[in-house]
Amino acid sequence: MSPMHWHSRVWCGTLIDCPRIGQVRIRENQTVVVNQFGFIESVEGGPQTEEVLRARYPNSNIQILSPGCFLFPAFCDLHLHAPQFLYQGTGLHLPLMQWLEKYAFKAEERIDADPELARRTYTCLAKRLKEHGTGTVLLFGTIKERSNLILAEVMQSEGIRAFVGKLSMDKSSSKTYVEPSPTASLEAAKNFVETVRSLNTEGPKLVEPVITPRFVPTCSDELLDGLGKLAKDENVRIQSHLAEARDQVNWVERERGKPDIDVFDAHGLLTPRTIQAHCTFLGPACFDRLHDRGTAIAHCPLSNAYFSSQPFKLREALDFGVKVGLGTDIAGGYSIDIMNSMRTSVLVSRMREGQRTESLLVPSGPPVEEGESVSIDWKDSLYLATRGGAVSLGLPENAGRFEVGSPFDAQLIQLFDGSTQEGVGPLDFIDGVPNESAISEEMLEKWWCIGDMRNRIELWVQGRKCYERRQ
Ligand code: GUN
Ligand code: FE
């Protein structure tokens, strides 16, 4: 039998995705064929019966979605510190630089010293990510190779697409949590890239290494320079923190005599394969530069509210054409749920827009509004949480939406029970469900605002089911 006739799975039902910012695309009665490698082979519209599908795809599993259900792209978390999951939800009363010293470095050091603790923490993290619909994640790990390999192994075996960063830091406020020299740090980074790339996996490989200078304060110029060259030679992605908080920004200015964006740029670390977290202290000229370099931003609004003292200029970054996705920044952000990241991104942007229009009100005259709104809405945020993340990571073309050639990374969401017409989980439809089985934009907005884990039935990554909700 030719491979063309061997299909692993056929889905039939409603597909919802965000092909571009501001657009939510609802397609009913779609037949999606996913091949044995986990990629979408075809998407066809038009009602189908089970008999017809069985006759047409005799060797495939066929899954017909019930009314009230739809497939949505898996979420992408562009910034998460895996070891900090240990103390998620505690200790957010300090400014960034003190918080790192008091909590982050200590937790990371514990993980590095105890492989069993690392495995337990990372296994629990993977479980939480999946129940919240995150299928792709860009991770910060720790300094030691061993724990980062455990992180990569756990993500691979749990079926999550993970980009794993072994931290590079040859300077630290901690005497014990630091690499001994720039050369030792570079050697370790190089080894890690090679080791992860040569990991043998059962099934499709889902993990990749990422070059990860923690941030400018913990990296010497020599280290940053070497990492820039390594990333170029090995064609590896890069991640770091950029212009995040007042104390960090001042620290860099004092120590290096220039802003961190200039430091990264000078060492070849702003590339089309770079994702920089936060960027709250950047303005238009810097967005222009990031756009020019092809560098993406991981927007982490919840963490920003604690550490950043000013909001990220999201709308302006988007208008400059900068690639943007959403991150949770565990544990600087306390929630692992990208739905919370989406909601917070909208809230923050609306407060910014309110401030902007208020500042334009002339006390004695009529209200004047100048310029474009700086807010985003729920639809924009759904794009950022899916396609925006995929574009930022440079995933294969069409990732983060449902098209021919997309990896099948999808969540099966249920809004209501087709037989009783009752809402699922936190959703109530007091007036009943309009139009029988169709999912409207209004219902989707309701899910975005108040939906939760109870609405998530399954999660699929690269055509494989990695999570199913317990009834
Ligand atoms: N900057 C450097 N390290 C960190 C970290 O662990 N969390 C956050 N939010 N910012 C950082
Ligand atoms: Fe962070």
Automatic annotation (TrEMBL):
GO biological process, one term: guanine metabolic process
Residue ranges of every copy of the Amidohydrolase-related domain listed in the record: 70-415
Keyword Lipoprotein: no
Lineage: Eukaryota, Fungi, Dikarya, Basidiomycota, Agaricomycotina
GO cellular component assignments: cytosol
SUPFAM superfamilies reported for this sequence: Metallo-dependent hydrolases
A GO term for molecular function: guanine deaminase activity
Species: Schizopora paradoxa
Entry protein name: Metallo-dependent hydrolase
Superkingdom field: Eukaryota
InterPro entries per record: Amidohydro-rel (IPR006680), Metal-dep_hydrolase_composite (IPR011059), Metal_Hydrolase (IPR032466), Metallo-dep_hydrolases (IPR051607)
Keywords: Hydrolase, Metal-binding, Zinc
Keyword check for Hydrolase: yes
Cofactors named for this entry: Zn(2+)
